[in-house]
Design brief:
This protein has a single domain, classed as NADP-dependent oxidoreductase domain (TIM Barrel, Alpha-Beta Barrel). It has an 8-stranded parallel beta sheet. Strands 1-2 form a two-stranded antiparallel sheet. Helix 5 links the parallel strand 7 and strand 8. It is α/β, with parallel strands linked by helices. 43% of the residues are buried. It is built from 10 helices and 10 strands. The structure holds NADP nicotinamide-adenine-dinucleotide phosphate (NAP). NADP nicotinamide-adenine-dinucleotide phosphate binds next to helix 8 and helix 9. The site of NADP nicotinamide-adenine-dinucleotide phosphate (NAP) has 30 residues, from helix 8 and helix 9.
Length: 332
């Protein structure tokens, strides 16, 4: 077990300090809900306090059962944990129902942080093929997104969520919606790993007091086949990562996590293997990277997006690049 006072923390805009690292719970079609929930159990016992959940991962009920066990055994109290969950893409018009379902599955009465998982309401079945498209897919709409966000704000008013956040956003979309928010997002969950640092979006979030939470922090080596392309870069093989791993005598995965925490984002590494999740947490409590190593990793960015989101494309959209507003305007 790693003592809590050794785990770094970051301050949200509210001043509340939260763990600077969490556990991801998306099994990537590779691990079933039993394995993932047992990992949550082991990880909390080992010292993790932030758990990143989502309804679409289809494992919240199993995670809820282990949370119940942890509370019963008095390993932790509810207030010791920081639990995130996310509204499904097909429930943007019934956010309260979605959150209440997640809370009931997770066996908790409030979420610490509730995300809009994707800015598109376009439904696709979990685990579907990368080529699958939903017939009623639409491009991003500020009005529709704000309708979803207003419902999220109400979740805070009702005490069902302590903070709300956005995920998979871009600067043009944030520019359009942030001025309309009554309650600002506390966090932005975004893909962040050494070969995809999203410096502009990261800096944008920080400058507005929005905490970046980084998914795929080690380059998601076990991501589903549908999310793999021939051009993808393996983060753990980047020269700067390999060199630092050698210098510190650790697995490259741990260098990715040290970099993430030292940069300031909250990485949410996934693992069901006790040796991995324990070393992932321990890595950010000891033996930091040097300034030179941090600079070398910063210079090794390859702009390599792994989770392209192609299933969200709408009829007439060119390709997945359209989802990310790469020309600086919201794609239509
Ligand atoms: N908001 C969103 O849209 C979104 C999108 C994607 C992910 N997420 C969240 O982000 C979390 C993390 O992303 P991810 O799971 O895709 O990627 P990741 O955390 O970068 O990669 C996880 C994989 O890395 C390997 N690994 C973990 N620790 C390791 C270690 N110490 N040494 C060597 N290999 C290690 C494991 O592979 P093996 O199992 O093969 O050993 C594990 O399955 C998800 O679980 C989910 O909670 C959110």
């Amino acid at each position: 077990m790693i003592e809590q006072n050794r785990i770094p923390r970051v301050s949200l805009q509210s001043g509340e300090k939260v763990p600077a690292i969490g556990l991801g719970t998306f099994g990537s079609d590779k691990y079933g809900e039993k394995e993932v929930s047992e990992a949550v159990y082991g990880a909390v016992r080992c010292g993790y306090r932030l758990i990143d959940c989502a309804a679409v991962y289809e494992n919240e009920a199993s995670i809820g059962a282990v949370l119940g066990r942890l509370f019963e055994e008095k390993t932790v109290g509810r207030e010791d944990l920081f639990i995130t969950t996310k509204v499904c893409n097909d429930r943007h018009r019934e956010v309260e129902k979605s959150l209440r379902q997640s809370l009931s599955d997770l066996q908790i009465t409030y979420a610490d942080l509730f995300f809009v998982h994707w800015p598109f309401p376009n439904y696709h079945a979990p685990g579907c093929d990368g080529d699958s498209r939903s017939a009623d897919s639409k491009p991003f709409s500020v009005d529709e997104f704000m309708d979803t966000w207003r419902q999220c704000e109400r979740m805070v008013d009702l005490g069902l969520a302590r903070y709300i956040g956005m995920s998979n956003m871009t600067i043009p979309k944030l520019e359009a919606v942030l001025p309309l928010c009554r309650i600002m997002p506390a966090a932005l969950e975004m893909e962040l790993h050494p070969s995809f640092q999203q410096k502009e979006l990261y800096d944008y979030a920080i400058s507005r007091g929005i905490q970046p939470v980084g998914f795929c922090p080690m380059g998601s080596p076990s991501r589903p086949e549908r999310d793999k392309t021939a051009d993808d870069v393996a983060d753990m093989e980047l020269p700067s990562i390999a060199a630092a791993a050698k210098a510190h005598g650790v697995h490259p995965a741990l260098i990715c996590l040290k970099w993430a925490v030292q940069r300031g984002q909250i990485p949410i590494p996934f693992s069901v293997k006790p040796s991995q999740y324990e070393s992932n947490l321990r890595a950010v409590t000891e033996d930091p990277l040097t300034e030179e190593e941090m600079a070398a990793i910063a210079a090794d960015d390859r702009n390599c997006r792994l989770i392209k989101g192609q299933v969200f494309l709408w009829p007439g959209a060119s390709d997945w690049h359209a989802l990310w507003d790469e020309d600086g305007t919201i794609s239509k």
